[in-house]
Every structure is written in structure tokens, then in C-alpha cells.
Amino acid sequence: MQGSTFEVVRSTRLSQATLGLGALWVAVSASLPFWGEAAWMREMVEFSCYFIFAMMWNLLAGYGGMVSVGQQAFFGLGGYVMLALGNLAGVNPFIAIPIAAVVAGLVAVPVSWVAFRLQGGYFAIGTWVIAEVFHLTVANIPAVGGGSGTSLTALRGLDRATRQHATYWIALACVVACIGGVYLFLRSKQGLALQAIRDNPVAAESQGIDVKRMKRLVYMVAAMGGGLAGALYFVGNLRISPDAAFGVNWTAFAIFIVVIGGIGRIEGPMVGAVLFWLLNKFFADYGTWYQLGLGLLAVAVTLWFKQGFWGALQARWGLSLFPTQRRLQT
Question: What are the transmembrane regions (predicted)?
């Protein structure tokens, strides 16, 4: 219609309120060491690691369309790089955390040349094989404990309270950086290109998008996030072993978190991580029955809530805490 003007809207009242509530949550969370118990901080650090790892898997598979079951390769690599820098090179383990993330991202570059030769299900299995290669390689390095693993000794001179507080604050900063980084990336031109590749790589390439380059970039970013989560987890745990670091359960839990929360949505890993933490807290003592319950819940969600719990809410009421789309408004 002549005379009409259009405005590109990229936020909503709900998203603006989310920003305010998020800032309040960060402020309250940052004060936890001053009034909370040590057990709470340990649980929050562990929760942060699961969440960051799941967020990276969601970026890789939910937005990039690359379903990997071998992201534990970078989780374990991040943990071992942090350990080697701390125990063998004398680097402060807290400083070693971001360094480990960068190393994981750099290692992902040559790994991607191998992994991307495979497609579909072969890509998924191939990433698992790559993770096992990492596992077996590290298990045969005596300097980092070999197959039995070793302890992080670089923090022995630090008192327990200081170590726990520092680990907690670093974990909180990593969570905020992960959410903010993924959100800003998905709102950028590169983020739109990534989602176009997920929907139809052939059409995306016909529009001038370098599909291979974009996939490698996302694979590297997801590896960095996985390495960050691994380094952070083992700083808090103080002990590492190949079986614990490179176990396929890490990716299995990430897939579970993303699937029940809602794949391809920033809110999905948030909802899924909270649900997983609650289930783990109240039912983990049931052992194999607990794992069976997780599997049955995942099956139920895929049958009746194909878009996850948040996806169902979004489809029903149009809720979006982190909108990435552009809408025209008159």
C-alpha cells in the first residue's frame, strides 16, 4: 500500500523482559558464594558444564544440521589440556580454561577435514570413532596418568573456599558468555546463513553462501565450547581419567537435554538442562532404572512433543525469549 512504512522488528516485550530478568539472575547468582553453601556452588558448576556442552551441541546439530555423537572428544581434550598446562607447564588452571577451549577449537580444524568427508549417519558414527581415537591416544600418555588418570595438583596451594568461589564465578561467566555469544551469532548474517544451510544446503549455496566454510566454522565453535565445558568440569572435579573425560555419556546427555528442551532453539538447552538436573538430583540413586527412565522420557518426548517442551510452548503461545528472526511491522 502506498505511503506505508515498514519497520524491521527483532525483539519483543518478552525478550526485553528476559534481558532484565537475566541481568537480575546474574547479579543474584554472582552473590551466591557470600550466602550459599559450598554444595550449591558445586552443583551449579556441574550444571553449567552440562548446559554449555548441550548449548554447543544444539548449535552444531539444531542450527547447523550436523548430528554428532562424538563431541566428547573435545570435552575430554579441553580437560586434559587444562590438566597438562596446570600440572606440567605451571599455568594457573583457571587461566588454562580458556586456553584449553582455544586449543580444542584449533584441533577441530584438521578433524573437520576428516569428519566432513562423511554425510548423515556416517558423519555421526565417524565423530564417535574420532572421539575413541582421542580416548585411546590419551590413555597411552603416561605424563597425564595413562589409562587410570590423575589428579589436578596445580591447585594444591589454594585454600578450598577460594578455589570453590573462583571456579563458581568462572562457571557463571562462561554460561553468560555462551548464551550471549550464541544469541548474537544467530542474529548476525552468519547465523542466518547457518540456518539457511540447515534448512536446505543446496539452496543456500545457490544464494552465494559458502556452505563448507560455514560448517567448519560452526564445528570449530562447538569444539571450543565443548573444550571449555570439559576444562571447567575437571577444574571443579580435581581429577580426570580417559573414561570419565571421553565417555559417550557426555554427548548422550547433551542430546537428551536438547531433545526434551527443544532442538534448534536457544531456550531448548536451558529448559532441558533444568529438567535434566532435577531428574538427576532426585532419581540418580536408582542406577540403571534412572537411565531407563531417561530413555523412556526421551522416547515419549519425540513421540508427543516432537519439538521438545519449549517447542510445544512456542507453537501454542508464540513465546520466544531469544528471538533471532526478523519481522516486518507496519
Answer: 14-35, 47-66, 96-116, 122-145, 166-186, 217-235, 247-266, 286-305
Q: Are strands 7-9 and 327-329 parallel, antiparallel or unpaired?
A: antiparallel
Return all residues near 66 (Cβ < 8 A) that are at least 6 apart: 60, 123, 215, 218, 219
Q: Bridge-partner residues for 328, per DSSP?
A: 8
Any bridge partners for residue 151, and if so which? 239
Burial of 259 from C-beta contacts in 10 A (0-12 / 13-18 / 19+) = buried
Residue 314 φ then ψ, to 5°? -65, -40
d(CA 223, CA 266): 18
pTM for the whole structure: 0.92
Our separate counts of H helices and E strands in the chain read 15, 4
Task: Map grid coordinates 542466518 to a residue.
Answer: 192
- Please report the pLDDT score of residue 13 as a whole number: 80
Assess contact for 246 and 72: CB atoms under 8 A.
Answer: yes
Q: State the cell numbers at 162.
A: 577460594
Identity of the residue numbered 29: S
Residue 329 CB neighbours (<10 A): 8
DSSP per residue, 274-297: HHHHHHHHHHGGGTHHHHHHHHHH
Sequence-distant (6+) residues with CB within 8 A of 178 are: 51, 52, 55, 56, 225, 228
